[in-house]
Design a protein that fits this description.
33% of the residues lie in helices and 17% in strands. It has 374 residues and is of the alpha/beta class. The C terminus is likely disordered.
């Protein structure tokens, strides 16, 4: 029998576990606060729990987090952690300090099955979904590792500028994997991020990024209120079929219709459209005008992402001039556009570069299966 890891439980499921154990369900908030807010994994330290409950929890449950096996720091302050999982796999998590926030990029799968042509993660295959503990464990590790650094721990170099945030204020599920293919575990992890007794993050400071799984997007809108980003990357179906193969199952017409409805009744909220800039592939003024037509009547803003190269890729980064020209065309249509700074590329921690270490890469879901919905 597998001993429950309490990191796998949000407040709802933890209350259910306590009831099954014959304990009072209100202890769930105390446990979540100890584990996530305070970073405590020793039951004996949880002094507002009775001694008998602590003894039961120690005997019948565990609190296990991923282990850091490599920590790398970039000159711009970005930190990448390679985290070991219990089965020998390893995943990557990246912290990006900025002047107004500290953003943690979290993985949801070991690898990715969607095989987007410009993404290093997708090119290396798929192994399995992450558990709730392995998803929220990345936040746990980052929050408490950063606190240790601030309290006197140090990296080989002073990496943070004085004005940069050195704590996690924002989380983006933009790391390894497609979050909506790991729906239930991701939703529980999101709940812990938003939980006032856990990490207490605002719904506007937690963003889930998807390649466009329309049914799962519709389902997500009913159970979570986090911010949404869509990996768009192309303004027409022919090109998007090539760059983001899931488009063959959920073409732009379906995806844009879903995006129009996603924040229905919340007029101030917009879907972030992520658009990686690939030289002479999707970066011309013609593509910009197509993008404007694609986003007509969609409550959206656009984030242009300079492509981050990886070994054996066929693509090149768009020039700064072409990125700026593209941005200017889209802005003239009244659409909010930002150009993402490239961060962490010196440690392969930039967007599209995360790789991890896999024990078995043979579990990639065949694209034909995805297209047919099996």
């Amino acid at each position: 029998m597998t001993i429950p890891n309490l990191l796998n439980f949000d407040s709802v499921s933890l209350r259910e576990l306590l009831v099954v154990m014959g304990e009072k369900p209100f202890h769930a908030t105390q446990l979540i606060s100890w584990i996530h807010r305070h970073g405590v994994t020793d039951f004996d330290v949880m002094t507002n729990l009775s001694k008998s409950l602590r003894q039961r929890l120690k005997a019948e449950t565990v609190i296990e987090t991923p282990n850091i096996i490599l920590e790398q720091a970039s000159k711009d302050g970005t930190i990448k952690w390679l985290l070991r999982l219990n089965d020998g796999n390893a995943i990557e998590t990246v912290f990006i300090p900025e002047d107004d926030r500290g953003t943690l990029c979290v993985s949801s799968q070991v690898g990715c099955s969607l095989n987007c042509s410009f993404c290093s993660t997708g090119k290396q295959g798929f192994n399995r979904n992450l558990t709730v503990a392995e998803i929220i464990g990345q936040v746990w590790v980052a929050v408490h590792r950063l606190a240790a650094l601030e309290d006197g721990g140090h990296l080989p170099q002073q990496i943070f500028k004085d004005e940069q945030y050195q704590r996690v204020t924002n989380v983006v599920l933009m790391g390894m994997g497609e979050p909506l293919l790991n729906f239930d575990n991701v939703v529980k992890a999101l709940a812990l991020m938003l939980d006032d007794y856990g990490y207490g993050l605002s719904k506007r400071r937690v963003t889930l990024s998807t390649s466009g799984l329309v049914p799962e997007m519709e389902r997500l809108a009913t159970v979570s209120d986090v911010a949404l980003a869509v990996s768009l990357h192309a303004p027409n179906n022919a090109l998007r079929d090539e760059l983001v193969p899931i488009n063959k199952k959920y073409p732009l017409e379906m995806l844009m219709d879903m995006c129009k409805r996603y924040f229905q009744g919340q007029p101030r909220r917009k879907v972030m459209m992520e658009y990686v800039m690939l030289k002479e592939i999707n970066d011309t003024p013609k593509h910009a005008k197509e993008l404007i037509r694609c986003l007509q009547n969609v409550p959206a803003k656009v984030n242009l992402i300079p492509f981050n190269p990886f070994p054996n890729t066929e693509y090149e980064r768009s020039t700064p001039e072409s990125i700026q020209q593209f941005s200017d065309v889209v802005k003239k249509a009244g659409i909010v556009v930002t150009i993402r700074k490239t961060r962490g590329d010196g440690i392969d921690g930039a967007c599209g570069q995360l790789r991890g270490r896999f024990q078995d890469r043979t579990s990639r879901r065949r694209l034909s299966d995805i297209k047919e919905g099996t």
